[in-house]
Every structure is written in C-alpha cells, then in structure tokens.
Inverse folding.
C-alpha cells in the first residue's frame, strides 16, 4: 500500500509532463503573439504638445498554426504610474510566422513623460514598456551664453541628434579632437613627420555649428607612443592616461595643442585639458608632472590664440583634495583660466570645497564650470519597470537639484553626463527617461531666453527647515526651484508644505521633475505647494513684489 502511495503521484507527474504540458504549450503557441518592433513617430520618441503620440507596432505570430484575429490592449501611463489613456486594437488573423503592422494613437498630451504598454489575453506583459517625452519646440535662447551643456557619450552625432540636443535645452557640448584621434607614430618613427588627421573633428564641429551648438574642445589624454611608462606603450596608437614623456615647448604634446588651437581659432573658444587628473586611474605621473603637462598645453594654446580660455582637467575630488592642492602648488593653478570640476551630486559641498582649495592656493576668484554632472539609476534596464521607476524619478530629481544649486552658487556652466551612454543615459533603448523632460523644463526656466540671475533663497520660515527654494531673476518675472533636502525627505518621506507670496495678477506655472504641468492656484496672495519626492519648478510672470520681499530684494 505504501509503495502504491509513492508510485501513483510519480505516475501522475509523468503523464502530466509527457502529455498535458505539451498540449498546453501547443495551445499557447498556436495563439502566441510577439511584438516585432514598436517605434514612435518622432525621433527618439520626443514629441511636441500639438502632435499625437503615435506608435508603429509590428506584430508577429511565432506559433506553428494560424492565429485567429484578436484584440490587443494598450495603455498609456504617466510618471506617477497613473493610467491616463487606454484602448484596444484588432490584430488580423495571422498565419504561422506572419506579421501585421498597425498604428497606435495615444492622443495629444501635455509636456511630461509617458510610457506605452501593450498586452494580450494570452500575455499580459507582451511588450516591454516604451517611453516618450512631450516637450515644446526649440526655445528661443542665446545658445552661446547658455549655462546648460551636455556630454554626448552615446550620441549618433548626426544632424537629427544634434538638433534634438538643442531642443533639449543645451547650448554647449563637451569634447572633440583628442590627441590619440589625430596623431600617432610607430616606435622609431619621427613624430615631426607624422601629420595630423582632423577629419573626424572637422566633421563633428561642422554639424554642431550648423545647429548653433558651441563646443568645449578636449585636448584629452596622452597617446601611447608618447608615454613610454604606459604599460600599453606597444599599442602605439591608443590613448594613454600616463603623462607624456616630453612636456617641453619643443615636444610633440606642445606641438599638437598648438596645431589644434590654431586650426579652430575663432570656432572653439574653450579647451579642457585632460580628465580628472587628481585620480590615479586617469593620470599617472604625479602632481608635478600634471602641472607640467597642463603648463605645456596652456603656453601652447595662448601662443596660438591669446583669447582662448583653458580649463584644467575636471577635478574629481572623490578621494579628497590632497592631490589637487599639490597640483595647484606645483604650478597647475597658473596654467588655466577656468576651473573645471566634476560633481555627480547636488554640488553644494564639493563646489565649496573646490573654492576653498583655490583660496588656500591664493587663486580665487576665477570662473568655475562643472564639466560632468550626472546621476546613475541604480537598477539595470532589464529589471521590471515598477522597480526602476523610483530610480528614474530620482535621476530626474537629482538633475534638477544639481543644476539649480550649481547656477545659484555661480557655476557658469554645467555639462550633464550623459546623452545616451548607459548607465547614466538620458535616452535608452526603450526611449527617453523622465530626466529628459526635466532638463528641458529647467533650461526653459533659468536659461531662456537668457541665463536667469540667481537671487538667493526664499525665506520660508523656521517651520520649513530642510526645504530649499532657490530664486532666479527672469526678464519677465521670477523663477523658484524648491525641494525637500534629500536626507530629510528621501523620496516621499517627510512631506513639507510651503507658501510663496504671489502678487495679484501674476501668472504662475508649476512643473514637476519630468516637465509635466502641475495644478497651481494662488489664493489670498499665497501659493501653497506640497513638496514630497521631487523638486518643483515655479515660474511667476508679472508683478513679483511680494516674492521679492521674501527673497530679501
């Protein structure tokens, strides 16, 4: 009897897996439907508010038998994960391996981030979510004066891409003409006889100029053939993080910088030399060698064009400031016009630390740029969207905090990192992340039509401790960017209500971290806002006497 009890379940399992499971799989595969492609009707899924969000979807039936016609459900959701629209479309009957193409029209939408999902009865998660951003057409602004820059890592660098960079709100892009891209020589060759190949940089610069973008050039790193201490010196054509051997005014590095600045005189006004040289991972040679390398670039550039401005390789400061202090003391401080730093967080602490380092060296004040500023979502793209969504929102929120603080502290220009290179990207395979809409909204608020003047912080009273509200002067009124300090309100915790004084007749517009328009009405001369998990962008057009008084102006 005991043997029977043991054997029967095993027999049932054998029959189930041998006969029943294949039947179920066959039934499922006969009605299966796959999405071959899902493409937006706008480049990189960036739409205008006056055009519908259209998607071209190609379905394929992978099953062995014909599939009858059936309905597919689509839904559109916003950053708050609310379903704002939904509908069905009928996929015609399909033979095995056949395809059918149709269009999904999700309607005209206001600015903000949207995501499209497609499902069938057989597969509720048929199509991985695709993203779209609605943002206005290119804003009127002085691109050369813009404080908004972009690192183009991962960009296609073609006309459509660069036009979208401008529409995104950027006026500047970082990097071009790196030494290893234009010159290299084999062991034993005379470097004097090796010509420069500027074709790649020339073509990129022409495309950028065509859309009005300014370029901050990059002299980049060394080239392996010029750095004998590089462990990969035998790969003579590759870039090297090791100091070039000859840092004199007659060496190959000096000659390269001279040639680059002479060639692009009047077209590239600013050049950054190296990248994060205070880190051993990017500069091998020590403080004195870096001061000599930067000094050679500075002398060569100024001899070729006295008007050109040179930036140090952006200081990281992530391992302290001892190396930076040593490099400044060794002479690097006298060899750049603009301070370059890199900060991937809201840069109050690091910006102040950089200023202190230059004060210690007797080199402050001088212009300050943040040439890398970014936020990496902590989860990879292959994780479920409901898990990634909070990190997407935090990336957008951190961009608003970082670029607002930088502008308020007098940082002349901030370059976001980066355009489309994982994991920091604004644009990924599924479409634009929410940060794209927030970047454009902030650029419109404090950078268009001209860079807004920072006025300081709004006095919100003692009850609003841990809450920031930075104010800026616009040609047509005031702008305020407000948020809870992340330590006090880590994404939804520690909600704070603030009140801004608003003059009668003033027009108020409030936007979220993806650029979406939020409800905002002033009553009895006050605008009440609840700050939770994201900064708010507040634009006040017209009379602003009451708000100016709260700022102290």
């Amino acid at each position: 009897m005991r043997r029977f009890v043991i054997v029967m379940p095993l027999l049932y399992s054998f029959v189930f897996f041998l006969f029943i499971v294949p039947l179920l799989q066959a039934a499922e595969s006969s009605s299966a439907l796959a999405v071959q492609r899902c493409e937006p009707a706008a480049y990189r899924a960036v739409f205008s508010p006056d055009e519908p969000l259209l998607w071209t979807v190609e379905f394929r039936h992978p099953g062995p038998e014909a599939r009858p016609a059936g309905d597919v459900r689509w839904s559109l959701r916003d950053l708050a994960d609310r379903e704002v629209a939904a509908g069905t479309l009928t996929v015609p009957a399909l033979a095995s391996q056949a395809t059918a193409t149709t269009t999904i029209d999700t309607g005209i939408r206001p600015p903000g981030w949207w995501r499209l999902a497609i499902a069938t009865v057989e597969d509720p998660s048929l199509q991985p979510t695709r993203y779209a951003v609605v943002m206005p057409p290119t804003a009127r602004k002085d691109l050369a004066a813009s404080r908004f820059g972009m690192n183009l890592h991962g960009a296609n660098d073609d006309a459509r891409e660069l036009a979208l960079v401008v529409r995104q709100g950027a006026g500047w892009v970082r990097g071009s003409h790196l030494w290893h891209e234009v010159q290299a020589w084999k062991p034993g060759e005379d470097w004097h006889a090796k010509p420069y190949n500027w074709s790649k940089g020339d073509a990129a610069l022409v495309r950028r100029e065509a859309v009005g973008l300014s370029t901050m050039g990059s002299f980049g790193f060394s080239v392996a053939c010029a750095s004998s201490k590089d462990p990969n010196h035998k790969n003579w054509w590759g870039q090297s993080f090791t100091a070039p051997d000859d840092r004199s005014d007659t060496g190959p590095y000096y000659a390269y910088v001279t040639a680059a600045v002479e060639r692009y005189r009047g077209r590239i006004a600013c050049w950054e030399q190296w990248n994060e040289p205070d880190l051993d991972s990017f500069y091998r040679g020590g403080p004195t060698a870096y001061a000599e390398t930067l000094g050679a670039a500075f002398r060569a550039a100024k001899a070729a064009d006295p008007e050109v401005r040179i930036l140090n390789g952006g200081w990281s400061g992530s391992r302290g400031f001892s190396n930076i202090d040593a490099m400044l003391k060794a002479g690097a401080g006298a060899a750049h016009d603009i301070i370059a730093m890199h900060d991937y967080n809201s840069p109050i602490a690091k910006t102040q630390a950089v200023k202190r380092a230059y004060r210690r060296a007797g080199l402050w004040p001088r212009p300050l740029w943040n040439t890398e500023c970014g936020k990496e979502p902590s989860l990879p793209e292959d994780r479920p969207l409901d898990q990634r969504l909070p990190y997407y929102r935090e990336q957008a929120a951190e961009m608003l905090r970082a670029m607002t603080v930088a502008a308020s502290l007098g940082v002349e220009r901030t370059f976001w990192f980066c355009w489309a290179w994982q994991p920091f990207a604004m644009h990924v395979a599924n479409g634009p992340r929410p940060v794209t809409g927030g970047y454009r909204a902030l650029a419109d608020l404090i950078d268009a039509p001209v860079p807004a003047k920072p006025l300081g912080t709004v006095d919100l009273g003692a009850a609003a401790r841990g809450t920031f509200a930075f104010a800026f002067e616009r040609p047509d009124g005031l702008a305020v960017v407000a948020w809870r300090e992340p330590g006090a309100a880590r994404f939804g915790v520690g909600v704070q209500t603030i009140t801004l004084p608003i003059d009668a007749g003033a027009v108020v517009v409030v936007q979220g971290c993806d650029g979406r328009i939020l409800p905002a009405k002033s009553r009895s001369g006050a605008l009440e806002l609840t700050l939770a998990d994201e900064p708010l962008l507040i634009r006040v057009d017209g009379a602003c006497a009451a708000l100016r008084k709260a700022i102290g102006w």
The longest strand covers residues 99-108. The radius of gyration is 28 Å. The chain has eleven helices and 29 strands.
